[in-house]
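---------- Forwarded message ----------

FYI, see the Glycosyl hydrolase record below. Original note from H. follows.
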Amino acid sequence: MPNSDDKMDIHSPSFEALSELADEHPSNYFDVEKDQSKLIAFYLPQFHRVAENSEWWGPGFTEWNNVSRAKPNFEGHVQPNIPRDLGYYDLGNVETMREQADLARIYGIGGFCFYHYWFSGRRILSTPVDNFLKSDISMDFCLCWANENWTRTWDGDTKSVLLAQEYADGDAEAFFDSIADALGDERYIKISGEPLLLVYRAKAIPNAGKWFAIWRKRAQQLGFPGLHIAVVDFYDISHPNEVGANSLVEFPPHKFNGPQSRPDVIPKITNSDFKGGIIDYQRVVLQSALRDVPRFKLFRGIIPSWDNTPRRQDTPVIVLNSSPRLYGAWLRYLRAYVRSESPEESGRLIFVNAWNEWGEGCYLEPDQKNGLSYLEQTLKSSFYRKGADEESGIDGARKQLFDALTHEEGSDPASGKASPAKRRAKLTLYTPSSFSQKIAFALRSRPLMLKIAKFVYVASLRLRGR
């Protein structure tokens, strides 16, 4: 029995997540409908010991080492982020994955997208997924080939390579053989009967179209009508036809973290060695809401937050101003988008980045700061008001999201609260072209040239009154 003196914190994120709509819309005023879009959360099969990480980073290393030793970089910066309900778990134990799946399913996650690490026949971090395939865990899933080099900088660059992708002769066939058993699992996610396979860096594959044709033929030989290949909407691609894929998958903060996403006020930096980037969650959300509907299949994506300080203490990318409430508003908008633009039921997918990327500050799992709040918002987004929300459509959903953006209070640790009118004015945005994004990506290995290009870009925006 709770103590009679106990008081509920009405300002806690959990209380707000569960109660904020109760007074806005009387329960008998609208019929509530279950949204049919499927949320798929990217899943990092790390957090267990492997020989390679012990060799490269020290005995017994897992990502928890990075997470636990992270330090704040500025005033108000919360580091380290400490897990709550699931603790510092070990994914070598399949029962941990069962607990994760149970928690995810309760709060509306429809599937995991496991990263698949494969290097010319060599698999890394394979134990969790192998254990999952042998289990009866009730959770749909798909795979994403994380085909970047492994490097000491954690970002797939070509310097300080620990394990490189080779794309050797015969690798296309060998790769497909490595995932064939998973594709045949009854839990594997399919679109119109075709298994869904994601590729992280499609443009890195020499003649990707040839590889994809081989995979589709192999899938047909297994009895499937084909293979739905979705590639991550990375900086170097703007249409799936460029590589012969079926669709693109949004992957925030990719393509959302340019100069147009900088906050108006930067908090006071306390780390004298800090050379990282700071962007504004609200501006990321705004870019998502303003994205035009493309003429190809695009799976929308969302992040609850982002802060890869654990991996890059002095040079991280940090997203300010995220909150469970704003995440929930963004997710409700994306669900409305999918209801409007995806008539095919099996194609109504939204990707959440991520379930457990603790090293990138990008996770739905409960932590000490927010508890279950992000998961509670995920569950709340599963329902919409039949009639009212349907009539207002995507434009109405966008307006509701804009209202949430302009009324978000106290989100900036440096500037405090702002009035809705002032905040709306601050959220004017110029979205860069895909051409400018490709230039920025091409110059990232030349810091001086990139700095000059960014300066010219920002100056041109100011001259045009942006």
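H. also flagged this: The radius of gyration is 22 Å.
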